[in-house]
Amino acid sequence: MPRPSRRNDLIETAQMLFNAEGFHAVGIERILSEGNLAKMTLYRHFPSKNALILGVLEAREKAVNGWFREVLADPSLEGKGRLLAIFDALEVWFENRSPLGKFSGCLFVRASGEFPHPTNPVHLAAADAKQAFIEMVAAAAELERFKKPRLLARELTLLKEGAIALAQIQGASKPALDAKNAAERLLADWPRKK
Asked: Structure pTM?
């Protein structure tokens, strides 16, 4: 199996530390030390810490939304089952059984909290990741012929985000089931196209 690139090593190390301790709390020297990386590796790939943060968020968005995209594309799912699969996936993630690594909350929420100005590139990257998720769910809702798929996607995303926050705070996977139950009630009454 080929060795991952040093760029990937840098992103993985930075993501692990940012997730555990925060973006502002972790310095470049710590990332390099923990990852056994040279300073040249950093500057070869990222001209600054903010550029590294953006690289981490881009990689995380690809991983998280890519995984949920696979969940929603499962050919065995149809109707409301396709959308409810989001919450089954959350439970898998919360129980550390997903390809996303150890669950420790949402890196995008952390990023937007630490970089709160809405025009900051880090804040914008976090917002874009969340919007991409909504668009993905809207496409799945459209596929399953739900009316007002964007509104439905936003409401399901609210349930997902609440489950993530509670799972982080409580250290439990039960919020995924609670959110799924709420989503089932929402979908039971949501109109569909003929």
From this structure: 0.92
CB neighbourhood size of 149 (10 A): 21
Write the pLDDT tens digit of every residue in 156-190.
999 999 999 999 999 999 999 999 999 999 999 99
85-119 b/e (C-beta count within 10 Å ≥ 16 → b)? bbbebbbbbbeeebebeebeebbbebbbebbeeee
Dump pLDDT digits (tens) for 21-65: 999 999 999 999 999 998 898 889 999 999 999 999 999 999 999
Residue 192's SS3 state is strand
CA atoms within 13 A of residue 93's CA, in its CB half-sphere: 26
Band of residue 4 on the pLDDT scale cut at 50, 70, 90: low
Number of C-alpha atoms within 13 angstroms, CB side, residue 68?
A: 25
Strand partners of residue 192: 146
Integer Cα distance of 147 and 134 in angstroms: 15
